[in-house]
Amino acid sequence: MDNSLPLESPSLSRRQLLNFITGAAVAATAGAALYPAGKFFIPRAETGAGGAILAKDVLGNPIPASQILGELPLTRALVAGLAGEPTYLIVKEDGTLDSIGIVDNCTHLGCTFPWNPMDQQFQCPCHGSRYAPDGTVVRGPAPLPLKIVQVVAIDNSILISPWTENDPRTGEKPWWV
Ligand code: FES
Predict the structure, then answer these.
(1) What's the 64 CA to ligand 1 centre distance in angstroms?
(2) Angstrom distances, CA of residue 93 to CA of 96, 144, 160
(3) Does 86 map to a domain?
(4) What is the dihedral of CA 24, 148, 46, 29, to 10 degrees?
(5) Which of 131, 125, 142, 135 shows the shortest CA–CA distance to 168?
(6) What is the phi/psi pair of residue 82, to 5°?
(7) What is the pLDDT of residues 162-175, one digit of tens each?
(8) Is residue 175 part of a domain?
(9) Strand pairing of 76-80 and 100-103?
(10) Is the CB of 137 within 6 Å of ligand 1?
(11) How many domains does the chain have?
């Protein structure tokens, strides 16, 4: 499945993103409400060291690594990440999963945005910010690079955890830490 959203159909892109965010918000809200009872039924494997969580789909179901790795190289696949944040997972050219995920939250005013495979950029529809494939700002008004997370595939699961080390794009402490 190619989750990249072509710019030729901006209304469809926005609708798909809105649907995803709504689904993620509902799943997060339901999860919070059911936590006291549900914590007894949630397998320990859902969380890991360093605050890692399983990558999930819009309905809150864990996504098998094989599903993402079955995509074409250079695919950006949108999943629910930490705290339900929409997060792009990247299939590298060699078919493996990139250890860095990109959080789909524009650093200008928080819009979500599609990946434009033609331009090889994340392009925010709200005020025109553009980001390189690694999330660095190509064009403002976005003031900061996109937040990144750590991604690892273990067995057939995908774990996402907070990025707390220096930002590899700047060599400095991340702005979100
Ligand atoms: S919210 Fe993305 S450019 Fe303004």
Answers:
(1) 32
(2) 7, 27, 20
(3) yes
(4) -30
(5) 135
(6) -60, 130
(7) 999 999 999 999 99
(8) no
(9) unpaired
(10) no
(11) 1
Q: Which domain holds residue 101?
A: 10-162
State which H helix or E strand residue 101 sits in.
Answer: strand 100-103
Q: Calculate how far, in angstroms, residue 123's C-alpha sits from the geometric centre of ligand 1.
A: 9
Please tell me the residue having the least CA distance from ligand 1 atom 3: 127
Triad 19, 23, 28: Cα angle to 5°: 150
**pLDDT tens-digit profile of 26-55?**
434 433 333 333 333 333 345 566 789 999
Query: Shortest CA distance to 73 belongs to which of 54, 57, 89, 55?
Result: 89
Q: Is 30 within a domain? A: yes
To the question of pTM greater than 0.70 for the whole model, the response is yes
Give the pair of three-digit tokens for residue 99. Answer: 């250890």
Instruction: Give how far the C-alpha of residue 16 lies from the chain's centroid of Cα atoms, to the nearest Å.
Output: 15
Find out whether 125 and 106 touch, Cβ atoms under 8 Å. Answer: no
Burial class (CB in 10 A: 0-12, 13-18, 19+), 88: buried
Would residue 83 count as lying in a domain?
Answer: yes
